[in-house]
Structures are given as structure tokens and as C-alpha cells.
Design brief:
By secondary structure, the chain is mostly helical. 81% of the residues lie in helices and 0% in strands. It is built from 3 helices and no strands.
């Protein structure tokens, strides 16, 4: 039971981080469309 709840906790943590990363990426794309075209593609690399 302990390992199951730990896994669920980790899964929830990862889901929250992924949601935050997606939100930040979406916001960045909206605010900095030209930077993307100019080769500033490090936004997506942070989550890796």
C-alpha cells in the first residue's frame, strides 16, 4: 500500500509539473512569437 500511494503521489507531482510547463510554454508562445522564429527554442528544453 505504501508503494502504491507513493507512486500516486509521484504521478500527481509529475502531472502538476507537466501542466505548469505546458502553461508556461503556451504563455511564452503567446508573448514571444518572434523569439521562437529567431531560434530561441530553449523554452521547451527546460522540461527535458
Amino acid at each position: 500500500m505504501v508503494s502504491t500511494s507513493l507512486t500516486a503521489e509521484k504521478r500527481k507531482e509529475r502531472a502538476e509539473k507537466a501542466a505548469l510547463a505546458r502553461w508556461e510554454h503556451k504563455k511564452a508562445l503567446e508573448e514571444l512569437p518572434l523569439a521562437i522564429h529567431e531560434g530561441v527554442l530553449s523554452i521547451g528544453d527546460k522540461s527535458l
